[in-house]
From TrEMBL, chain A:
Predominant location: membrane
Keywords of the record: Cell membrane, Membrane, Transmembrane, Transmembrane helix
Parts of the chain that traverse the membrane: 29-53, 74-95
Topology with respect to the bilayer: Multi-pass membrane protein
UniProt keyword annotation of Methyltransferase present: no
Family per record: Belongs to the CPA3 antiporters (TC 2.A.63) subunit C family.
GO cellular component: plasma membrane
Name of this chain's protein: Na+/H+ antiporter subunit C
Subcellular location: Cell membrane
NCBIfam families hit by this protein: PRK09094.1 (NF006573)
Domain of life where this protein originates: Bacteria
Organism: Rhodanobacter thiooxydans
Automatic annotation (TrEMBL), chain B:
Membrane topology, record value: Multi-pass membrane protein
Transmembrane segments: 6-24, 31-51, 80-100, 112-131, 137-154, 166-189, 209-234, 246-267, 273-295, 302-323, 329-350, 371-393, 413-434, 455-479, 499-526, 578-598, 610-627, 634-654, 660-682, 703-721, 759-777, 815-838, 844-865, 877-900, 920-947
One GO MF term attached to the UniProt entry: antiporter activity
Keywords: Antiport, Cell membrane, Ion transport, Membrane, Transmembrane, Transmembrane helix, Transport
Domain of life, source organism: Bacteria
Descriptive protein name: Cation:proton antiporter
Organism whose genome encodes this protein: Rhodanobacter thiooxydans
Keyword Flavoprotein listed: no
Compartment(s) of residence: Cell membrane; Membrane
Sequence ranges assigned to domain MrpA C-terminal/MbhE in this UniProt record: 698-794
Protein's UniProt keywords contain Cell membrane: yes
Length: 113, 967
């Protein structure tokens, strides 16, 4: 479980970083999205992985240990929403930059690909 | 009203009045004046009411707890010294308010002016009433800020802007030093409470950190009180409206520095370092200021340098280190405030009536404005130190102090000589000021026909001049008790040295010194009269302009240096910078990983084949997206969505249904958003130059970096996951989610209750981002080639319009006929589902975030199926208002708890029996979650719609935009 998830986080991060270093704005935005997946999974996994644990309290509150760790979940939940907002902002910035400079290079000038 | 809450009332009054005055805006010029004068007078009355509490060295304390655990409370402390300052601040504030009403141009609504003046008054009161030194620094910086805004009040003038900036840089820079000094002081004493610090003088002076503490605090005081070599900002600040100069830059704000010196004298004073630095700086400032004042041509310039000189005198008195010196310093603070404020007002009246402040262009105005001339004569005489006026008394005390100091023969003689010389200079510039303006011939070139200023401009000058006279004639009666209260507050009740406030002490050495100074001053004036009229700057010192040095330093620090760094920096371009950042992170990560051992044995985890298969798919999607993003954007987007879905499934797998739902919905919205944006991106240019060697090299290099990052992140994640989890605060949340938050869904309870403040911040970010997106798109200019509708759309529109009785947009309805109908029917169901998610959020997976995105998905589906025009004709879509409403709701719920005497965002819940629905848990956190919900709906919808509208409005505006683009 952990090994698979760790590898997955690594692959997501690697793909994201590779795209981050590309010259085209669209590549960078996709890269950032992939990196945000990796980071969200990473934060989520910090509390340890649990399958089949209760995410919601039962009325007869029994042992605390039977529940999942709610804290990383709360952190990641807002991170997902904020991630959407920043993606939107970056998308609009790149569209504006494309309109102003006439190309979609991150440096605003189409020197090299 | 009980005395105990009076201090906070006095402090709060000006700030409340400032807000009120600001709200007046353009209405009610007179109302703003009443607000200013009324507040100041009320403050004065309340302060006078406090008098019994502070006589005899006592202090009134008021403590308002804020963060007691950190030792941070709002402590207000009024002792005799603070009380005297309060009288000055409120009294002169009231007079300045009246004066400004008639001085300021008639077409200025003045609301902003008085709001700033009131806020300044509050900040100044805050300095003198602070019982906590950090709080004092806070108000100290506030006065710098308001002084900046007031100097730059007429911001259309370049000199006002420059003067304001210089004052801000110097005084707030000093304020930072003061903060550092105060922190050191707090470190030495172990408390920031003023009373504790004042009692710990011996410990502070003996401490190893005494000297740095002293230097830092002195830097703060000297910059504020315009002491050499930081004096240059004060003459530049004279571009402020004259009431501001009278109030801030002579009577109150510049006194904050000497206030601090006197305040900390029992703690820091009495050492050699104190004597040399404070005394020496005071002496230099005293003589240089007086010298420069003689040669100024600008009326306010004379007064500014004279203020510098008098502040130097006060500093020197404190620096001499005797108790009597402190008494004299306090006395002179009051005297200088009265005569200098009235002189500034007189100078303003002259400027107002004659149209110039240039001493070379003025003369003989006594014939036109006899009352003002008389009043200015009295105040000017007080400044020169003429007997029977208050300036004379404190100067006598000053001379007596210089005579009494015993620091070696050379120094004693030197200080006496310099004191007499500076005093003579003071006589000279006072004569020059009064004679040059009001006596002599009337120049033919006066810009305006002068006449007496309005009555209410003369009254404040008159009252201040009267105060000079009263203190000068009957000092023991008028100022004696207040001075005693102030001095005993600083020195301790029993430590008051014997001093006598009398006009006539017999023929004493100080009197002879006064006479000498007077004679020398008159002689100097007569002999230098011709020079004054012709010289542009003071001889000798005029060449060293603090202003020029300041400007040169600023040019280096704020322009040259950054430019040089920027040029040296590897690149201005984003791509290499990103590379650098990633490399830096990689290096830092490697260093951290190699230097700090994990401290546990790595072990293999079990591998679930199904999960592994799932992530095989996910990894393929991620790598596919990475490889396709350049030329096949749609494919890359779909693949990214695939990776997102896989991580969504993982969330379900790993017992996080809330996350899965949110991730899924956000995935949908993000995809729609990027799809909307794809249309504006450029097409692939076929047959561009073949891939060169450098490109190949870069790709390989980036591949290596990306692989390294991936490996690093993966091993870090693995290490973190395998690390035994220590007992975290999650336990706290699990145990109390139901008992204190009233909900079963712990994640939601954390978001809306335990960490509600964070969530409030997050929805604010969301709102700000949405508004930024909206604002950016309002001015959006697409590239020329993407302005026209896409080929497919054009074709369809043409086809759709070709039949009989059909309009252009009929193609759309045809095209999406069945999906459109289904979506239209489903939209209410989706909205209902969203509401369901919202309502159950506190107990089951769901909540404001998910529900909000669901509802906005319903809306955007409608947009897609029916077109923007149809939706907006049938629904009122007002996302900006929704955002505002949601923020208000969330913040309002938080504030609601204040009404019940609980801290911000405290939640409350109970189970309510409702008809039909049965028992419902109702928590105030649900209202907060509703706010979150509304903000999320508004923000998401706003972003999507703003982008979608671009395609709608462009075709209509295309010709105009194209023309603009070419121009």
């Amino acid at each position: 479980m952990e090994l698979v998830l760790a590898a997955a986080i690594g692959i997501l991060a690697a793909s994201g970083v590779w795209l981050l270093l590309r010259p085209r704005t669209f590549q960078v935005i996709i890269g950032l999205t992939l990196i945000s997946y990796a980071v969200n999974l990473f934060i989520f996994s910090i509390g340890g992985l649990r399958t089949g644990a209760d995410p919601v309290l039962r009325d007869a509150a029994g042992d605390i240990a039977q529940y999942t760790d709610p804290l990383p979940q709360a952190l990641v939940l807002t991170a997902i929403v904020i991630g959407f907002a920043t993606t939107a902002l970056f998308l609009v910035v790149l569209l504006t930059s494309r309109g102003l400079t006439g190309n979609d290079h991150v440096d605003g000038e189409d020197g090299s690909a | 009203m009980p005395d105990a809450i009076l201090p906070s009332t006095i402090l709060a009054l000006p700030f409340v009045a400032a807000v009120l005055a600001w709200l007046l805006r353009s209405r009610g010029r007179n109302l703003a004046v009443w607000l200013m004068t009324g507040t100041a007078l009320l403050g004065l009355l309340l302060a006078l009411w406090l008098y019994p509490a502070i006589t005899g060295g006592g202090a009134l304390r008021q403590l308002i707890p804020w963060a007691p655990g950190l030792g941070l409370d709002l402590v207000l402390r009024v002792d005799g010294f603070a009380w005297l300052f309060m009288l000055l601040i409120c009294g002169i504030g009231a007079l300045v308010g009246i004066y400004a009403r008639y001085y300021m141009p008639a077409d200025d609504p003045l609301a902003r002016f008085f709001a700033l003046l009131l806020a300044f008054m509050g900040s100044m009161l805050g300095i003198v009433m602070s019982g906590n030194v950090l709080q004092l620094v806070f108000f100290w910086e506030l006065t710098s800020l308001f002084s900046f805004l007031l100097i730059g009040y007429w911001h259309h003038g370049a000199s006002a802007r420059d003067g304001a900036r210089m004052a801000l840089v110097v005084t707030s820079g000093g304020g930072l030093c003061l903060l550092a000094g105060v922190l050191l002081l707090g470190h030495i004493v172990g408390s920031y409470d003023l009373d504790v610090i004042l009692a710990a003088g011996d410990a502070v002076r003996a401490h190893a950190l005494y000297l740095p503490t002293l230097l830092l605090i002195l830097l703060g005081a000297f910059t504020k009180s315009a002491q050499f070599p930081f004096h240059f900002w004060l003459p530049q600040a004279m571009s402020a409206p004259t009431p501001v100069s009278a109030y801030l830059h002579s009577a109150t704000m510049v006194k904050a520095g000497v206030f601090l010196l006197v305040r900390f004298w029992p703690v820091l004073g009495g050492t050699d370092a104190w004597f040399w630095i404070v005394g020496g700086t005071g002496l230099l400032t005293l003589v240089l200021g007086a010298y420069a004042a003689m040669f100024e041509q600008d009326l306010k310039g004379v007064l500014a340098y004279s203020t510098i000189s008098h502040l130097g005198l006060i500093t020197m008195l404190v620096g001499l280190g005797s108790a009597l010196g402190v008494v004299a310093a306090i006395f002179h603070i009051v005297n200088h405030a009265t005569f200098k404020a009235s002189l500034f007002m007189a100078a303003g009246a002259v400027d107002h009536e004659a149209g110039t402040r240039d001493l070379r262009k003025l003369g003989g105005l006594r014939r036109f404005m006899p009352v003002t001339a008389t009043l200015a004569l009295i105040a000017g005489a007080a400044m020169a130190g003429v007997p029977l006026l208050n300036g004379f008394l404190s100067k006598e005390m000053f001379f007596a102090e210089t005579l009494a100091s015993r620091n070696g023969p050379l120094l004693d003689v030197l200080s006496v000589v310099i004191a007499v010389a500076a005093s003579a200079f003071g006589v000279t510039y006072s004569i020059r000021f009064v004679r040059g303006v009001f006596f002599g011939r009337v120049p033919a070139t006066l810009p305006r026909e002068p006449h007496e200023p309005p009555l209410w401009m003369r009254v404040p000058i008159g009252l201040l001049a009267l105060a000079c006279l009263l203190v000068g004639v009957l000092p023991a009666r008028v100022i004696g008790p207040s001075l005693r209260a102030a001095a005993s507050a600083v020195l301790g009740a029993g430590q008051l040295p014997p001093y006598s406030l009398a006009v006539w002490h017999g023929v004493t050495t100080p009197l002879l010194m006064s006479v000498l100074a007077f004679g020398a001053g008159c002689l100097l004036f007569v002999s230098l009269r011709r020079c004054f009229a012709t010289l542009e700057a003071a001889p000798l010192t005029g060449r060293f302009s603090g202003k020029r040095i300041f400007e040169r330093v600023m040019a280096v620090v704020a322009a040259d240096l950054p430019q040089r760094i920027e040029r040296r920096y590897p690149s201005r371009r984003l791509q290499p910078q990103l590379l650098l950042i990633v490399l830096l992170a990689l290096v830092a990560g490697t260093l951290a990983a190699t230097s700090a051992p994990f401290g546990f044995q790595p072990r293999w985890s079990s591998v679930d084949p199904a999960f592994a298969l799932l992530w095989l798919l996910g990894a393929a999607c991620a790598i596919g997206a990475a490889s396709q993003a350049k030329f096949h954007r749609l494919a890359a987007l779909v693949l990214t969505g695939g990776a997102g879905l896989v991580s969504c499934v993982s969330f379900v797998w790993l017992s996080a249904p809330d996350l899965a739902a949110t991730q899924l919905l956000v995935e949908v919205v993000t995809t729609i958003l990027i799809l909307l944006g794809l249309r504006w991106l450029p097409k692939r240019i076929e047959g561009l130059a073949a891939e060169s060697r450098t490109h190949r090299f870069r790709r390989r290099r980036d591949m290596v970096i990306a692989t390294a990052v991936g490996l690093g992140v993966a091993s870090l994640a693995y290490a973190a996951m395998m690390h035994p989890v220590a007992d975290s605060i999650s336990r706290f949340f699990l145990e109390r989610a139901y008992t204190e938050g009233g909900g079963h869904n712990v994640v939601n309870v954390i978001l809306v209750d335990f960490r509600g403040f964070d969530t409030l911040g997050e929805i604010s970010v969301l709102a700000i981002v949405a508004l930024t997106v909206f604002a950016l798109l309002r001015r959006f200019r697409p590239a020329a080639e993407s302005i026209n509708a896409p080929a497919q759309q054009r074709l369809q529109t043409a086809l759709g319009a070709s039949g009989p009785g059909r309009a252009a947009d009929h193609s759309l309805t045809d095209y999406l006929m069945i999906p459109g109908l289904i979506i239209q029917l489903m939209a209410p169901v989706i909205v209902l589902f969203g509401l369901h998610l919202f309502l159950r959020g506190h107990d089951l997976p769901g909540g404001g975030f998910v529900a909000g995105i669901t509802v906005s998905v319903a809306l955007i589906l409608l947009y897609m199926a029916r077109g923007a025009r149809w939706v907006e004709a049938h629904l009122r879509v007002l996302p900006v208002r929704w955002i505002g409403l949601g923020l208000l709701l969330a913040a309002g719920t938080g504030l609601g708890s204040l009404a019940f005497g609980r801290p911000f965002l405290t939640s409350y819940f109970r189970h309510v029996e409702l008809p039909v629905l049965g028992e419902l848990p109702l928590a105030s956190a649900v209202l907060f979650d509703l706010g979150v919900f509304v903000v999320v709906v508004g923000a998401t919808t706003l972003m999507l719609i703003a982008l979608a509208h671009q395609s709608l409005r462009r075709p209509r505006q295309a010709p105009a935009t194209a023309a603009e683009g070419e121009g």
